[in-house]
Amino acid sequence: MSTSSSSRVLLGRLPLLFCRRRLSTAAAAAAAPASASASASEGEGKKEEEVGGGGGGGVISMKGVRISGRPLYLDMQATTPVDPRVLDAMLPFYLSRFGNPHSRTHLYGWESDAAVEAARAQVAALIGADPKEVFFTSGATESNNISVKGLMRFHRDRKRHVVTTQTEHKCVLDSCRWLQQEGFEVTYLPVRPDGLVDLDALAAAIRPDTGLVSVMAVNNEIGVVQPLEDIGCICRDKGVPFHTDAAQALGKIPIDVARMGVALMSLSGHKIYGPKGVGALYLRRRPRVRVEPQMSGGGQERGIRSGTVPTPLAVGMGAACEIAAREMDYDNRRIAALQARLLEGIRSRVDDVVVNGSVEHRYPGNLNLSFAYVEGESLLMGLKEVAVSSGSACTSASLEPSYVLRALGVDEDMAHTSIRFGIGRFTTEAEIDRAVELTVQQVRKLREMSPLYEMAKAGIDLKSIQWAQH
Amino acid sequence: MASAASAVSAPSRAEVLGLLRSLLRTAAKFSDYNVREYVRRRSLDGFRENKELYDPAAAAAAFAAAKSQLEVARRQAVVYSLYAPKVKSVLEIKSI
């Protein structure tokens, strides 16, 4: 731009040098106006990165929080980083091979179509299906919508009932609520305190007009693995299609649609180190599962899901599935060891820690802990150098405690204090150790300040206290 | 039988060690802490796992697979460094 603006930048930097010491000890609120004026000429809003001298990096200041580096990522259930091998497979389709897979008349279309079909085969191989049974969608949410709403609407004349659980993902529950508004009936099965569904209750809930049973394979909040083969058996005996949301399960537990008796399955790309924005839907062919499409258009994906298939994303998902098939054993061994290290590390230094959900039937990469006498939000605020979540990303906007924990029968105060650690392929031992240190430090600090903890340590039963009204 | 097997020759010890060294050197070039550690760890564990492969065809296949992974790693090290964030991971900066 003009020289006057560049000299303004220079002048703007000078006060920054003088007030660096002040910035490093001042509160975040005081720091924000000082650095905001320095970077006013750059026109930046909330995020500022000063390249400082000490420490070989910079400081990130965002939303009133200052941290010296990028946090450790321990939130693998929210999303996973893209594996470099997946990125390598995807890039050519953003660069030179950018054709539309549905273009039949030229090389760009043919090579793009070949890539999509190869990716489809890779996804199918991971779940033990035929490639003709796999359809690409925009994600597991869309696949869940097609499965629940599409299937029931197709059979709206004869089947009017759906059976699902209270711990399903929000998109399944919301689709069921939508169906209820259209006049269908839905049974939301309660789960046991360990998170597993009661098989007898499930069998009893199935009626002659039940059109669908939907139970997720691995829960995203508590990591509990449902007994899919048993549920599949029950559904097969009763002649009801079994849908499972396998977004968190794909590539982590061995999935075989034939062995599990699954008729519909939702898959997600970005939970298995693939790109965001792609998922898949498995629809069994024998016996044929028919659904009403939710996206109208040119009839792509055999009429199930119209719209151009995003070649790079599909290729990425396929590559991620292939890598997951190869690396599943190695990853699971490592992740189980890391989970044990995390749990042992925390439990040995801090007491009154509860694991939410069954410990035996769980995917090791998901550890949901509740710390008694500690408030969840303040714990998270103090853990800014570790990226973890409390509850699930979908429900974090509201202040309600997680409905999944409520379904498990967890007390309100324990539900509010739950933290979900997500361990993945790229997590290192050093990260786990640092996370343990930071968590223990923060929990101890909060408990020291907590009058409830003092009372509990003195032996008073908190539930018996009559709190005086003011 | 023997002639068919000898058509595919197993890689020599020097070749295998050279490939592992290249993988570890490429791992060090990644700007991202997690990917760097993963490539290093996976290469070491992978070569350790396949140490006992005495069948020449299997050994040659494993060697070829590792070689193609080296190519992927080389390309991706460049891509990651092009888009490296200015701020490093908390683990690399300071101790508590």
Automatic annotation (TrEMBL), chain A:
It is an enzyme of class 2 (transferase). Its EC number is 2.8.1.7. Keywords: Iron, Iron-sulfur, Metal-binding, Pyridoxal phosphate, Transferase. Pfam families: Aminotran_5. Residues 34-57 are annotated as: Disordered. HAMAP family: Cys_desulf_IscS. PANTHER family: CYSTEINE DESULFURASE, CYSTEINE DESULFURYLASE FAMILY MEMBER. This is cysteine desulfurase. It comes from Ananas comosus (Pineapple). The lineage of its organism: Eukaryota, Viridiplantae, Streptophyta, Embryophyta, Tracheophyta.
UniProtKB/TrEMBL annotation, chain B:
InterPro entries: Complex1_LYR_dom (IPR008011), Complex1_LYR_LYRM4 (IPR045297). GO terms for biological process: iron-sulfur cluster assembly. It comes from the Eukaryota. Residues 15-72 form the Complex 1 LYR protein domain. PANTHER family: OS08G0239000 PROTEIN (PTHR47158:SF1). This is LYR motif-containing protein 4. The lineage of its organism: Eukaryota, Viridiplantae, Streptophyta, Embryophyta, Tracheophyta.
